[in-house]
Amino acid sequence: MPRIRHQRCPACRTDGLVATSNPSILDCRQCHGLWFEDGALNQAIAHQHDCIDEYDHELHLGAALRASDRQCRRCHVPMVHYQLLEHYVTEIDCCPECDGVWLDKHEIDQVMHSPKLKQALTDLNQKVTWKSWLFQFLTSMPVEYNIQPHRTPWVTRTLVVLCSLIFVAGLLTPAANEWIFVNLGLNSDTQSPAHFVLQLLTYQFVHGGLMHLVGNMYFLWIIGDNLEDALGHGAFLALYLFAGVMAALAELLLFDTAQGPLLLVGASGSIAALFGLYLMWFRHASLSFMIIVYQKKLAPHWYFLIWSLINLFGMFTAQGGVAWAAHLGGFALGLLLGYLMRDYVLKKNPLIALLSQPEAVLRR
Ligand SMILES: [Zn+2]
Ligand SMILES: [Zn+2]
C-alpha cells in the first residue's frame, strides 16, 4: 500500500492536502477545500449532472479578475481569480499555467451545480416582454419568474380541477348550488361536530363567483407548482389543507356572530399560506406588478407587502364579503411554517439554497 503523501494546501498553508480515490483530486484535511487538476473538475461536474456529453457541462469562466494570494501546488506561480458565472459573484482560484483549480469548502457546491445555476439565473433574469405586459394589462394578474419545477405538480393540478368542477356543478341548477353551499361551505351554525370538521376541509373547494375562483386558481397554479416541487406531493397537500383549516379558525375567532352565522367559502386562506411559504423560500423569484401601465418585476417580499397592506386596509375599513382575517391568518401561518421549515427545504433543494445566497445577482 502506498504511503499517503501530505502536501501543502494553497489556502490554509498547512500540510493537510492528500489525494482522494481519484489521484487528480486532492482534499485538504484542515480547511476541507478541494484541489482539481488534469480535467478532474469538469469530469466531476459532468458526473454530478449524470451527463455523457462532458463538454456541455464544462466550467466556462469569464475574464480573469485579479491575481490571488494563493499559489498553484504544481507550478508555484500565483493563481488567478475568476468569477464563477456572470450572475453569481463567487470567485474561484485557477492556475494560469496548468489547469489546476482550487475550491474553498463553501464553493464546492456552487461549482458542482454551476451548469444548473447558470440556466436558472438566465431564466430568473429575463426582462418583462410585451406579452407579459399585455397579459397583466388585460387580467390584472402578476407574471411569475421562477425556475421550472422538476416534478409534475399533480396535487396543484388536482386542486385546481376539483375547485373548478365544484364551481361548474353549482352553475348547473340552483338546487345543486344551494346543496354545495349548505353542505360543503363552512357554516358556524352547523350542529354536528363531525360535519363541522368536514366543512373545515370542504369549504376550501367552494367558490362564490367566477372572479373569486379564477383569482385563487391563478395564484395556486403559478406558485403551487414550485412549492409542491420543493416539498414533495404529500407534504404540500397536507400543508395546504392544514393552512385552510387554520385560516377558517382565524376568521371564526375574529368574526362577530351577532351579525348572524359565518358562512365561509374559498381557497383564499390556504393560498395566502402558500404566499407566506413562497416568500420564505423563493427570495430569488419575481412577480410582476403593474402601476397603471408600467410593469415592474418585484421581489416576493415587496409584492406580498403590498398585498398585505391591501388586506389590512380591507379589514380595518370592514369591507364586507371578503374574509380578510382568513387571508391574513393564513399568510401569518405560512410565514411561520416557512421560517420553521426553511433549513429543511433548502437542504432538500440545493439549487434553491444556492439561489437564495447573496452571491446570486438578480435583475429586476
Ligand atoms: Zn487547507
Ligand atoms: Zn499550475
Describe this structure in words.
By secondary structure, the protein is α+β, with helices and mostly antiparallel strands. The chain has two domains: 17-123, no CATH class; 127-355, Up-down Bundle (Rhomboid-like fold). 50% of the residues lie in helices and 15% in strands. It has 13 helices and twelve strands. The chain has helices spanning 40-48, 105-112, 114-124, 130-139, 154-172, 174-183, 193-202, 210-231, 233-254, 268-281, 300-316, 324-348, 350-355; strands at 17-19, 25-28, 34-36, 64-71, 78-85, 88-94, 101-103, 144-145, 186-187, 263-264, 286-291, 294-298. The protein has a seven-stranded antiparallel beta sheet with strand order 1-2-3-7-6-5-4. The longest helix is centred in the last third of the chain and has 25 residues, at 324-348. It is elongated and about 85 Å long. The protein starts with 16 loop residues before the first strand and ends in a 9-residue tail after the last helix.
